[in-house]
Design brief:
heterotrimer; A mainly alpha; B mainly alpha; C mainly alpha; B: mainly alpha; 11 helices; 1% strand; globular; C: mainly alpha; 8 helices
Chain lengths: 678, 318, 220
């Protein structure tokens, strides 16, 4: 579709280098994908040649994004598409940031995928390679598109290619069902976005983003546009109550695809909402921020509570994605609020927290999804209740996953903590909002956020402890093998990014500053205190220096080790576990995933729809079963589905099957049209 | 960074590490007196630690390196926490690296590591302890953060030394919101440090314990470090409490040596009183069923939120 | 800006009132409820006395004294006696979900703070910002009555509500005219006596003070 007719040299000469580079890299991905078709069934060719090459392109894209962050915005028009509707591309700091995210995260994922895909798993490797790279390229074009037409084409390509990736193992009915649900909600959301663009053009019937920026909308219409965009992008991002596809589609997809979808694709939705509300709409209203904040906080709490009761490792991570998207939306809402009440520095702080959280989530969530992929390949098992003790057989995966686990739990000095810290700092300024009710309600978001973060710690201890620690719950787990070298590189890249983002937040935030300047008119402002100390507002108020922090912890740990070993001794004896002297100990006595989630089920009971089968004490073969379901599914989706079905039944009645009836319909339509027109 | 600041910092950490077991000893003594028992010697915790350090460590055969790493990590995080919490003076150069939010994060890190270690061996009690500890933690952590928020709304800072300095240096004023926060803080302190009514530090009855269940598999030097770290954690919590609610007597920044000398006896007096109070609280309350623990902690959380609300409404200090 | 000491004290007592309201909301045991109520009355007396001292409104000393006698001493004594006579010392409420109730309470507090903000901006008194707390105390007492099933705790909820009203009066307008206050005090006293008589009747009828028995009185 993005035709190869364009003369590359001429193209390069006539356009800004960064934008052209990004477009060409996407084109490179498309070519790589097509190359996969050459040798459809050769895992060797696809895995060892095409995917590593794609990863190299990812790295280049990340560099391009980094370079473009501080470069002036660039535009170009591609002479493709429909007549009179050429594709407009535009690269500014916002797009550049998300390109950086896309490139940096997908580099690790592609390297991992190179070692991951095998033949005999559904779709042929060559075809998978095509879908995968089309998916990547379409995300680049979503980020670059500067008119509604190009945006929607790229958006739909993204949805379709990811649909095919989700249904890689299309012979399994549940996976087909999950894929269908995903496609359905993606399209319902796409309609929302399309309508939002329809409102945004404001009567000019020009669908370029420039025209939308220029359009003057009344508060009512701009609110409608925002609502539609929130609906559409929220459906893609998995904002509650439009989240139901996430826990179905993420587990169904192969792990690198889950990583890409959760880590990167969800971020395109955040890009979209940022683009629409700050850039295209221009002047947001404060209650939009309050709405986004409330929805975001609720999604975060909802996601993490559901993650805590999951028994499937990939579903757990999918719910945790809902949580993280919720946090990002909360930061977004806060940013709007500050922006509307003319507090530009704080708006920039909240925006920085949001962007940082997006970046963080891209890395740690990808890392964990990939780790579950390795576990899945090694054990053929994704139920938490059948795993355990894998740190002994898969040390590489386990130790790298530990980094991701600690990062996603929001623990200092890793990256998850930085964004939460920034967001909490932003929350502490909300009492200064000059709006009576808002300045009392909004600060209460801070404890809610703290609760979410603490629950994330709970979830991650469960995730890591049940999979990697303890004893092996099934004997065959002893045969599990560690992952291959390419997979290790992929995981290590993502883990290293988590550490780097955690340790150098001041540098990263300086790099992000142009985004704030672009969207809000003012950045965080460069701090005079140097690049080691993160100081969001003023040094008396708060400061955080992860490097010094790490030195503090590391120094005291090493000193302790040295002192204990030096002054005393390091003798060790190995023995059977003590466990209070209980003679009979089996692996089944450990907490299962259900068991570990029990306190959450107990405390957050109203969140769930539970079905439980409790064994009686006299049962000789007792069985305990608990099923936790989403209330939204029953309260919202099934009624809507029922309504649609009833409507379809009604429309079906119009279909009489007799030609004269159809002719009558045509006749009546014609008459009606004539009446309206004349 | 001044020389005085550096010395305050080092003194602070050294003092914390050295007298934390003494604080535990004092609490145990008070508890014994209140229960009409003859009290153990004041230095008993030190003897315990020394004895444990000399012993050979016995480790479960399936323990992973994570298991052996955790006691050191735990001790290291608590020492780092002691470097952030002002015990003697507010001139603490290291505290610029981490504010109160990071401090709460540090405690969370310690908790996650201990829970992971408890799950590592794969015994029933270990996982039980880890689950309960995380349950207590996820409610106590936001409560503690909310307490910190309340104080930082009043003082306009999230750095603990700066909060303490502001509160101590200001004209004496009553903050009702801090009263709420104080109640919540005491509840969190009890829960986080494995004390009655959430956990019983003296019990070894399997089904009621939380902290003990997690460290069942540890022995010798590992156990010594864990015990020491627990003592240090309690000491840190006490000092956080002093910094937020009783900040008087801390040596101010740039005040010279005299206040620093004066700060030590003040701290000792505060610790004596706090220890006695803690012992009294523990003696007069009964241990809660574990099912009631979330209720207790949710109350702490809500009280802290109420404190935040009251400070927003009455708007004092801003 | 620092407030004068009297205003600080009033804020403190107001916060304590609110805290006690929450404590009552979470308290299961009927006997402790009475003690909390007495404590709340004591806070009310203290704050009224402080208001009287700081504003020089001497009739407020009278209302403080009246409150002390009535709400701190007499009513708790009557209630204690009642509980002993009815032998319901160990009665506990079967509260289903205390955290949820408290969360609701928190929302009530936010609501009343928001409600009080425009009014308190009009008021000229020193202690106007406590008006929100007073409204919250009234509404929390209401919430407590809703969640309770025992007759005694409902009466205590009713009395706590009156505490809130009284506090609103002193904090926003330096008290009501003496006649009105006396009238209210008398009303409350009579109300408690009548309710006490009701208790005996209810217990005689149903052998219990649980109010859900009364629900069966409605027509089917």
């Amino acid at each position: 579709m993005w035709s190869q007719r364009v003369d590359v040299a001429e193209f390069w000469a006539n356009s800004e280098p960064a934008l052209a580079a990004a477009a060409l890299l996407a084109l490179g991905w498309l070519i790589l994908g097509l190359a996969g078709l050459l040798r459809l069934h050769s895992v060797e060719f696809v895995g060892r040649v095409l995917f590593p090459f794609g990863a190299a392109l990812s790295l280049l894209l990340a560099l391009t994004g980094l370079a473009a962050l501080s470069a002036p915005p660039a535009s170009m028009t591609l002479a493709i598409g429909l007549p009179d509707l050429p594709f407009h591309l535009h690269l500014d700091a916002l797009s550049a940031f998300f390109l950086l995210l896309l490139g940096a995260a997908s580099a690790g994922i592609s390297v991992f995928a190179a070692g991951y895909f095998r033949s005999g798993e559904g779709t042929a490797p060559g075809l998978l390679c095509l879908q995968y790279h089309v998916f990547l390229a379409s995300m680049v074009f979503v980020l670059l598109a500067a008119d509604a037409y190009a945006f929607m084409v790229a958006w739909e390509t993204m949805a379709l290619s990811s649909y095919f990736l989700v249904t890689t193992q299309h012979r399994i009915p549940e996976i087909r069902r999950a894929g269908f649900l995903y496609l359905l909600i993606a399209h319902v959301g796409a309609i929302g976005i399309l309508l939002a663009f329809g409102v945004l053009q404001g009567g000019s019937w020009q669908f370029t983003f420039d025209a939308m920026r220029a359009a003057e909308l009344s508060p009512l219409w701009s609110s409608i546009a925002f609502g539609l965009a929130l609906f559409g992008f929220g459906a893609k991002a998995g904002l509650v109550p439009l989240h139901v596809w996430l826990p179905e589609a993420h587990p169904a997809a192969p792990s690198p695809v889950s990583a890409l979808m959760s880590g990167v694709m969800l971020k395109t939705a955040l890009y979209g909402i940022l683009r629409v509300s700050f850039d295209l709409l221009g002047a947001p209203l404060w209650w939009w921020g309050a709405l986004a904040l409330a929805l975001g906080l609720f999604s975060a709490l909802f996601g993490v509570v559901f993650a805590a009761v999951q028994t499937d490792m990939k579903r757990l991570l999918a719910y945790s994605s809902i949580e993280n998207i919720g946090i990002a939306f909360a930061a977004f809402g806060l940013s709007i609020l500050f922006h509307c009440f003319a507090m530009p520095q704080l708006a920039a702080l909240a925006l920085a927290a949001m962007l940082y959280h997006c970046l963080n989530h891209a890395f740690f969530k990808s890392l964990l999804f990939l780790a579950t992929g390795s576990v899945l390949h090694a054990t053929r098992e994704r139920r938490l209740g059948k795993l355990g003790g894998l740190i002994r057989t898969m040390p590489w995966v386990a130790w790298l996953a530990l980094v991701g686990t600690l990062a996603i739990a929001g623990l200092p000095p890793l990256n998850g903590f930085v964004s939460e810290w920034l967001l909490l700092q932003a929350f502490l300024f909300t009492p200064e909002i000059p709006q009576p009710f808002a300045n009392m309600l909004i600060p209460l978001g801070a404890p809610a956020l703290a609760l979410t973060a603490a629950l994330a710690g709970y979830v991650m201890v469960k995730f890591y402890g049940v999979i990697f620690l303890g004893r092996m719950r099934e004997p065959q787990l002893a045969q599990a093998h560690d992952c291959g070298i390419l997979e290790r590189i992929g995981l290590a890249w993502l883990a290293a990014a988590c550490v780097a983002l955690g340790l150098t937040p001041a540098l990263m935030l300086q790099a992000l500053d142009p985004v704030g300047t672009l969207l809000l008119g003012s950045g965080l402002g460069t701090q005079s205190t140097g690049s080691w100390l993160l100081v969001p507002v003023s040094a008396e108020r708060a400061s955080y220096s992860p490097l010094l922090f790490l030195v503090g912890i590391g120094g005291s740990v090493l000193l302790t080790v040295w002192a204990v070993r030096r002054l005393y001794h390091g003798r060790i004896r190995r023995a059977a576990p003590w466990d209070c002297g209980f003679p009979l100990q089996t692996a089944r006595m450990q907490d299962s995933a259900e068991g570990f989630g029990q306190p959450i089920r107990h405390i957050f009971d109203p969140f769930f729809r539970m079905r439980r089968e409790l064994p009686s004490p006299l049962d000789s073969a007792p069985r305990y079963r608990v099923e936790v379901e989403d209330r939204f599914w029953h309260a919202l989706y099934l009624p809507v589905a029922g309504g649609v079905k009833a409507l379809a039944g009604f429309v079906g009645r119009l279909q009489r099957g007799r030609i004269s009836v159809y002719l009558l319909y045509s006749f009546l339509t014609l008459v009606a049209l004539l009446v309206i027109v004349l | 960074m001044t020389i005085a600041g550096l010395i305050t910092q080092l003194l602070d950490v050294a003092l914390g590490v050295l007298i934390a077991p003494l604080f535990i000893g004092w609490i145990n003594q008070c508890r014994a007196w209140l229960a009409n028992r003859s009290a153990p010697p004041l230095l008993q915790p030190y003897r315990m630690i020394r004895k444990l350090l000399h012993k050979d460590a016995v480790i479960a055969e399936n323990a992973s390196p994570l298991f052996r790493m955790v006691p050191y990590v735990l001790f290291g995080t608590m020492v780092t926490a002691a470097a952030i919490v002002p015990a003697l003076g507010t001139d603490m150069p290291f505290a610029g690296a981490a504010d109160a939010i990071a401090l709460v994060g540090l405690f969370a890190t310690a908790r996650v590591f201990v829970s992971l270690a408890a799950m590592d061996i794969g015994t029933a009690f270990g996982t039980l302890g880890a689950r309960r500890e995380m349950m207590v933690g996820f409610l106590a952590e936001p409560a503690l953060l909310t307490v910190v928020f309340t104080a930082s709304l009043i003082c306009g800072s999230t750095a603990l030394p700066s909060i303490a300095g502001t509160l101590a240096g200001r004209e004496l004023q009553i903050y009702p919101s801090l009263a709420f926060a104080a109640v919540a803080f005491v509840m969190v302190l009890l829960a986080e440090n494995a004390r009655i009514p959430i956990d019983n530090p003296a019990t070894h009855l399997e089904l009621t314990m939380i902290h003990e269940a997690m460290v069942l598999e540890y022995s010798a030097r590992h156990l010594a470090l864990i015990e020491w770290a627990s003592a240090l954690k309690l000491f840190n919590y006490a000092c956080i409490g002093f910094a937020l609610f009783l900040p008087w007597g801390l040596a101010p920044t740039g005040g010279g040596w005299l206040p620093l000398l004066f700060a030590l006896p003040v701290l000792v007096v505060k610790l004596l009183l706090a220890g006695a109070g803690l012992a009294l609280l523990e003696t007069i309350s009964a241990k809660l069923r574990i099912f009631r623990a979330p209720e207790f902690l949710a109350m702490a959380f809500l009280l802290a939120m109420l404190g935040l609300l009251v400070s927003l409404l009455l708007g004092n200090g801003r | 800006m620092t407030l004068p000491l009297s205003a600080q004290l009033i804020h403190l007592f107001a916060a304590a009132l609110l805290l006690l309201s929450f404590a009552m909301l979470a308290q299961r045991r009927v006997l402790s409820l009475v003690n909390l109520f007495a404590l709340q009355g004591a806070m009310l007396v203290a704050s009224t006395a402080v208001v009287a001292y700081s504003s020089g409104q001497h009739h407020l000393y009278w209302s403080a004294g009246l409150t002390l006698i009535l709400k701190v001493l007499l009513l708790p004594y009557i209630l204690h006696r009642l509980i002993r006579r009815l032998q319901v010392q160990w009665d506990t409420e079967t509260l289903v979900n205390i955290p949820t109730t408290l969360l609701l309470g928190l929302l009530v507090v936010i609501f009343s703070f928001g409600l009080a903000q425009p009014i308190s901006q009009l008021a000229s008194t020193l202690t106007r910002s406590t008006l929100g707390i007073a409204i919250a105390v009234v509404l929390l007492a209401f919430l407590m009555m809703i969640t309770r099933r025992k007759a005694v705790s409902q009466v205590i909820g009713f009395l706590a509500m009156e505490n809130g009203l009284f506090f609103a009066a002193t904090s926003a307008t330096y008290g009501m005219p003496m006649v009105v206050e006396l009238g209210i005090a008398l009303d409350v006293l009579v109300g408690v006596f009548i309710l006490g008589i009701f208790f005996f009747q209810i217990r005689e009828q149903f052998d219990s003070l649980d109010l859900h028995h009364l629900e069966s009185l409605k027509e089917e």
